[in-house]
Amino acid sequence: MRLLFVIGSLNRGGAENQLVLLGSGLIDIGYEVHVVSLNGKGALDGRAVEKGITLHYLDSNFFPKILRITKLARLIRNLGPDVVHPYMPGANVAVSLFRIFFRDVPVVWGIRASTYGQFKINRKEKFFWWLQEKLFSKADLIICNSNAGKDYILKKGCPHDLVRVVANGVDSSKFSPQEELGLQFRDKYLGGFGGKVVGMVARFDLIKGHVDFLHLSALLSENFPETLYVIVGNHSDKNKDMLIDLSNKLGITRNIFIIDEVEDPFSVLNGIDVLVSTSKSEGFPNILLEAMACGTPVVATDVGDTKQIVGELCPVFQVGELQEMSNAIEEIFNKNFPSESELSSYAINQFSVKKLVVETDILLKQL
Asked: Rounded mean pLDDT of the chain?
């Protein structure tokens, strides 16, 4: 089967990583996989090519964006895929609006978030979310990576019979307990610090709860004044200054480390003692699954599919329950949590890439 994914670009991100994992797994079972990037090259392009995925680019500094989309329609006709599988609102909309040019090719949307659209700062992305909700009927199938995402689009009027859920998979070849990688992370970014480290791994976005994370850090510091708190992710200078100003007001500046996006998040997850998510909205938060695969305990807010991901192994709280989250982290510091091997085995077995590939293959072949 010839499968064409359509996405903005293969920059680092949860959805983009999952696309490469899925694409390479489908190639292993006989698929021919192509990816067209609407906005140009991305950081994951090299990995995709190594896995046997063929890349196409539509970006151009010389033509308006509308002409890029007409180029997409021409590429689809020329390539002759058996299925077109756009990922996320912008790509879902682009493919659907021009479907008149390839009516006989099944289109499978990828929904990678839940209520995320209403929280986005970017007006363009808000617009794509709104327009996507008007075009459900243009898809032959919609695959959500979370039950939260499914519930959200059903509430927005999507027909039930169009929607299926296929959970993300974790790449066990990278995300696994690796003490040496954790030590390298601490040496490089924390001066070889040997004490307790609490981490948050997320780009700066209002919904990710960075402010709550800092308030949680202040609470925990009352009993653990030497603990370090690490925020890893893509942050603008303005956002970073805001976080530093707040940490100053909370009196925890010396304990806070803000680190730009790293190439190997598995080293971060092996280098911290607890991963915290204070997010206000999620679909399928990959980082929780990846942390558990590395044997790192998680304390998270009850958003999206978080409970389904962590099961009974890690504590989950309502958004804003910072004191309760702080108490849970203290319990973890006191060794009251599942073993590293138990966390890792659960994550890898329950959310394997093989399961992701098999379930997707079955759905695509039913079209």
From this structure: 92
Residue 127 shares a structural domain with residue 218 = no
Q: Would residue 127 count as lying in a domain?
A: yes
Does 164 score more than 80 pLDDT? yes
Decide which of 124 and 286 is more confident.
286
Q: Which residues contact 317 (CB under 8 A, 6 or more apart)?
A: 299, 300, 301, 302, 324, 325, 328
pTM for the model stands at: 0.89
The domain that holds 318 is classified in CATH as 3.40.50.2000
Predicted confidence at residue 100, as pLDDT, reads 86
| Residues 326, 192 share a domain | yes
| Beta carbons within 10 angstroms of residue 110's beta carbon | 26
Closest Cα partner for 92 from 31, 61, 134, 121?
Answer: 134
CA dist 75 and 311 (Å) reads 43
pLDDT digit string (tens) for 95-127? Answer: 998 888 898 999 999 998 776 544 445 677 778
Task: Let me know if residue 12 belongs to a domain.
Answer: yes
Find the mean pLDDT for residues 349-357: 96
Q: Which contacts qualify for 360-367: CB closer than 8 Å, 24 or more apart? A: 360/22, 360/26, 360/143, 360/166, 361/26, 361/29, 361/31, 363/108, 363/141, 363/143, 363/164, 363/166, 364/1, 364/3, 364/83, 364/85, 364/108, 365/1, 367/83, 367/106, 367/108, 367/140, 367/141
Q: Are residues 255 and 321 in the same domain?
A: yes
Domain hosting residue 151, numbered range: 2-169+352-365
On whether both 344 and 202 belong to a single domain, the answer is yes
Helix (H, G, I), strand (E, B) or coil at 362: helix
Q: Which phi-psi region, left, alpha or beta, contains residue 185 (left: φ > 0; alpha: ψ -120 to 50)?
A: alpha
State the total domains in the chain.
2
